[in-house]
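Bench log. Compound arrived from synthesis this morning; before running ITC I wanted a structural hypothesis for how magnesium ion sits in the protein. Inputs:
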Amino acid sequence: MVSDLLDAVRAGSRVPRHVAIVMDGNGRWAEGRGLARHLGHGEGMKAVRESVEASLAAGVEILTLFAFSTQNWKRPEAEVRALMEALRTYARKESAELAASGVEVRVLGEVERLNAASRDAVRHIEEVTGGGSELRLNLMVSYGGREELVRAVRSMARRAGDGLLDPGSIDADLLEGALYTAGLPDPDLLVRTSGEQRISNFMLWQLAYTEIHITATLWPDFDRGDFYAALLDYQRRERRFGEVGTG
Ligand code: IPE
Ligand code: IPE
Ligand code: MG
């Protein structure tokens, strides 16, 4: 039972503050049913809802979802269009309920690359949900970890060039502050669906010591039970951060 899983999570040692998810497998989910790939993206929205609700119930503070990568722009135009439409539909249909649940949404990535309608949707969902204090939901859109690091380095170099920053003062904290995720703790847990065992350019800096949970479940099939199972797996891990274990 799903409620038993939630009880087990609550009884466990610690709930991760920050969970990040590579939402993968929409295309295969659709292809497996003889459907066009883009139908899988629409279906994936159900799994987003499940993960948000599970995060609220379990007391996760930050949920970061990889929705569209910088590299995903290279997919066929029709598929890019379907993914952007899924984002707009999500913003239109879910903003009010997210706000009512205290979820604050931020869209992080190269938002300037989106078309006007999608940028409006981003503005809308961020405005309507602003100030929510139960859960911070980061939607990573046109996001790439390498691109994020390049952007951070460029902004520091610009400030150094303008004489506003001493290059000798650049340290990990300063770099962290120049990332899209400035001020947020690193993910404690990374979930990737569809069985793929790779990072795919996601949060390269922030995942340095994150625990990784990979499930074969395709993203549209991922439900709150799967989310709680990932939290339970996390609770069994011993985190070391390069130090000696506690035995
Ligand atoms: C995840 O599903 C959604 C995005 C990457 C945007 P995919 O579209 O990657 O689905 P698969 O991996 O081809 O099955
Ligand atoms: C990663 O999935 C990007 C998102 C989930 C948005 P991809 O499907 O694009 O990654 P690869 O191609 O399998 O590495
Ligand atoms: Mg994929």
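What the model suggests: The first helix runs from residue 2 to 11. The helical segments are 2-11, 26-31, 37-58, 77-100, 116-129, 145-161, 172-176, 224-235.
ITC booked for Thursday regardless.
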